[in-house]
Fold these 2 entries.
Entry 1:
Amino acid sequence: MATTYTQGSSEGRSWASSPRPKGRADHARNIPCRNIQIYGYCKHEKDGCMYNHDAMKTAAAPSHAENLKKRFNVESPSFTPSLPDGNGSSKTNTISPKAASAAPFTPKTAKAGLAPPAAVTRSNSAEWSNSEIPEFVPQGYQQAHQHQLSEGSSSLQDPFASYDGTGGYSESDAAAAAAAAAASINPYAQDATNSAAAAAFFQQPSAFSQPLQYHLYAPVGPHRENLLAYQRSAHDFFIAENLRQEFQRKAEASLQVLPNSNLPANIEYFHSLVPLDTSNQKNTNSFGYNSWVYKATSGKDGNVYVLRRIENFRVTNDKDIGSVKAWKRIANASMVTILDCFTTRAFGDSSLVFVTDYHPLSKTIAEQHFSSFYNPRQRAPQLLVPEQSLWGYLVQLTSALKVIHGNGLAARLISPTKVIVTNKNRIRLNCCGILDVVQPAQASTLAAQQLEDIRQIGRLMLALATNNPNAVSNAKTLEVIGRTYSERFRSIMAALMDASPVNPVSKDINTFMSNIADQVFNVFDTALHYEDAITSELYRELESSRLVRLMVKLGFINERPEFSDIGQSTGQWSETGERYYLKLFRDYVFHQVNAEGRPVVDLGHVLTSLNKLDAGSDEKIVLTSRDEQNVFVVTYKEIKRSVETAFQELSKTPRRL
Ligand SMILES: Nc1ncnc2c1ncn2[C@@H]1O[C@H](COP(=O)(O)OP(=O)(O)OP(=O)(O)O)[C@@H](O)[C@H]1O
């Protein structure tokens, strides 16, 4: 479909005088063309260039060479943009030297009914005014439409059917389009007198339908701000800036290493240990032993995990360590998953190590909410946690307990230092199962432990609601909570603290959960909203990854200095044949200059062009050589085909020494 013509002269220049592409002289020597393509263009077998067959056929002279002068210049009827001048004539139009930035190709007959192209000036735009444009009523449409209806809905074309899923049309579709092209149809030519063309067009609607516009950045919601197109910025194409920064900080934290640490180089199959503890003052409050937390990389899968070391612990009964198996089976989004447990002497003592998931940059509830309490130097007063956040915490902890108790286990340790905040309002119960190994309890006390779990949640919530980690659960504290938060929240706090087999609200975790069902649904709805927002962000990055792959391919092909003899007997591979388009396309996308010769740095143009290339759109663009001697009119679909062919050639090239 592409055509090539020399620039600037109404007479045109012969191929022989133009420097590129190589092989055009063969074309001029009238080597027969093959592969008649859509809309009457043909592809030359030697140089891969596209020529307008129909335009050639109309002339009396049989050979390409004889017709070159007439056919392949800016005056060529097929390629003269129909920008009407003041006199209604487009004869004097020539392609600008800055043709790379020219308006899209507009067929000459568009004058009859379409809106004016962007390049039309005020003076001549009168010619395009709506009042002068007769309403388009295609002849033959009525019959074709009725014919389709009479055949039933099955005869209607499925707009997706012809799409081959790879960004272009399937071969059958191309054949249909070629058949339509044989009837000399220009889908944009709205000449009502040409009934044959009109009828053919409407009988083959799918031949002209664009593929699904999936390649354009789909504005998948939710959209909080009502931004207009001109208010959008480059960031709108990509993941939100705050999210990007947060993810990058987390990625950086995950990859952090300590080059000169005193820690052992390897612990079992883990290496690159980095301490996560924020102070070196340890206490035995939680487990009865000092404990340390490290981030470490697994030598098995390269992923990052957390190792919690219980210092100086000796396993006296293998059964105790076996209890970890039951914890490994539990997967709950409000818990830090336990993955493994082993003993080691790598630290110079007998240590017990628990392997858990790593949640980068997380903080304990104590660090998040009571930092000023634990760190008197931090003078900033801690703000009260909003009630909605507290309900969110409560529902998450309850959800974790529901699974734990359902598996016949008890958390046993729910304290401000053993619940971590992994995201905004997102918490996880940490260190589950450790007490079962280091302080094994009798099975008969399980029910009591489970009730104690519920009371521990109550104490934690009380601490958060009063902003005091040492808050004592009594009537006065509840009264304070009642003054700050709703009566419902206060009563639920009271029920939590008073959990017992006879309490109708909190006698077990399932009963308690049904009593806060309304809040569970609120939190569930919030979670769904968050999921929608994250999915929407994901959609923006969807296009980026495809474009990166496309740019990688183009990068492999463009300006390839070696392989000068691939596919061509002479000349540089990446500079000849269809690859030459790719070089010009690269200029078209990245190296455009404006009328003042300044570089055009337009992200929108780059993204649009690359997306259209990836989708293999039928839209035509004008590519101009750097010396401005050659101009090609080519579709994205053809460029896409060239990219694929060239890349296949590259990847199939045998290794060279
Ligand atoms: N699974 C995890 N992923 C990421 N960071 C974690 C994980 N578990 C703990 N941390 C972080 O490690 C640090 C220390 O955690 P730890 O549980 O030891 O708290 P602590 O306040 O030191 O408690 P203790 O006083 O009992 O030692 C905290 O900043 C915590 O956020």
Entry 2:
Amino acid sequence: MLVEILTPAQMAQADQLTIDSGVLGYQLMQSAGQAVANAAVDLLERRTGSGASGMVCILCGPGNNGGDGFVAAQLLEEEGWSVILGCSVGIDDLTGDALLAAEDWGDEIFSLSPRLWQDADLVIDALFGAGLSRPISGELADLIDELNLSGLPVLSVDLPSGVDGTSGLAGGACVKADQTVTFFRKKPAHLLYPGKAFCGDIFCVDIGIEEQVLDDTGHIAVENQPVLWIDSWPEALKPIADIDPLRLADHKFHRGHCLVLCGDATHSGAARLAARSALRAGAGLVTLAPPCDAASLVAAHVTAVMVEPVQDVASLGTVLAKRTYDVLVAGPALGKTQDRRALVYDALERDVALLLDADALSCLVDGIESGEADLSLLRESPAARSERLVLTPHEGEFARLFPDLSHRVREEKRLSKLDCAITAAQRSGAVLVLKGADTVIATPDGRAVVHSDGVPYLATAGSGDVLVGIIAGLMAQGVSALDACCAGVWLHSRAGRSFGPGLIAEDLPELLPSLYMDVAGYLSGGFHASDWTGGDD
Ligand SMILES: NC(=O)C1=CN([C@@H]2O[C@H](COP(=O)(O)OP(=O)(O)OC[C@H]3O[C@@H](n4cnc5c(N)ncnc54)[C@H](O)[C@@H]3O)[C@@H](O)[C@H]2O)[C@@H](O)CC1
Ligand SMILES: Nc1ncnc2c1ncn2[C@@H]1O[C@H](COP(=O)(O)OP(=O)(O)O)[C@@H](O)[C@H]1O
Ligand SMILES: [K+]
């Protein structure tokens, strides 16, 4: 099944639709508080041994997040745990369901102070959740800093207080939680950094909201899971017993041919990594295209990968006319000389699936008088028109192409990486892979997939070249651009995680075969990401 991600605004709509259908808001709050209390008991029992013999400190804020805290306080006390509760406002300042919850708590409400947790075994952070409207500052920020220094386990309700639910940005003080319990569906901040790093283990619990509300709320993105792309998994990467008998006699030309443009003699490693990765990802043939004076050096460093010199636009035309190529990759250490830049512009006019990475992305900005890429060249390319244009920028390349959506601007204006990636995909007409510890894959029609799996081992030279090669290899076999990007990012991340420390980019393509056996476990059902029409239509 799809795992949808809802913005706090969409979540508020889900709450409201449920309330409109006859469920009391206070009932939802009680379910949320119960889930928090359950999680707290698990954590307490792990810390204090079984039996209700520990103390919980609950920090409540002025809104419904605080309301969840009051409910949890009451339930934990009923179960025999010692509870001490502080609130950022007096009971007279509470309203609605939060006021009801505070009245039902009935016990003492202290002012917030570090003294509250001095004897505690666990702190529950119910200060702010979806309603955070600005970074936390002043006395509350000091309190959060002290809490983070206390070394006590912290359970956050819905979101770690201070983290912006929509963008995952952490502008002011933020609670550093060991565990976060959220409700119905995850929010962007549970997946996007830095927010995700503050959440600890995330548990998403059912509080009685019906799935059907999603038809009305829509969703901002989905999580990247094999169910999205497993149905388009190439035959050649399946275990022999799963291959369609009619495909057992396939030859290499059925598995597609990738052409990878290559840089000069001193910069050919990146393209060679991409080429090898495309082969490992199942492309039937892969050819590297270096400039003439680098051809013998490149040829000396490859074996199954072929070499066809491409000096200029004319020779690219000749090479493309000679054989059928299914996918063209341009970027890894391509260089930004006049010649190589001309190749990128020429490739944009050709009717072939096109993956632009690294230097090819920079070529779209470098040497342009206005300093701005002409995105209409991308949008109107045959590749984009046939939904076969892919861009794989890291944040630096993304900032050059889309300066108004850069990481810096996002932080300044508190914009979400998801919204910005979707906007960039719409402007460029490309399936866009905005790489990072939280990679966002976005499509021109407004869909987004998030792969959030901090694997710092992947932050190593050449790792992005491998990713673009994997995506190209999958597309060569007929996988759609979106499915190939999602599957490629998944495989890349898994490879990094399974290898662990010491990983270098050369290791990554060699890890793919063992991952294909893992993928085989998912082959029993699913649907294509490319068939998914998004949540808000
Ligand atoms: N019926 C519902 O809507 C449900 C809501 N639930 C809980 O309600 C939460 C959302 O509740 P609210 O919308 O009341 O929002 P919050 O409780 O997250 O916070 C809103 C309050 O905080 C204040 N505030 C925001 N940023 C601040 C800052 N930086 N410094 C000081 N004060 C600040 C606002 O003025 C407002 O009073 C969710 O996170 C979830 O925990 C759950 O109880 C489930 C049901
Ligand atoms: N901390 C991290 N967690 C997960 N993935 C990461 C992390 N850091 C980098 N990556 C991934 O590693 C790859 C690096 O790509 P890139 O920056 O283009 O490197 P290069 O240009 O050296 O090939 C991207 O796919 C990115 O998503
Ligand atoms: K919270």
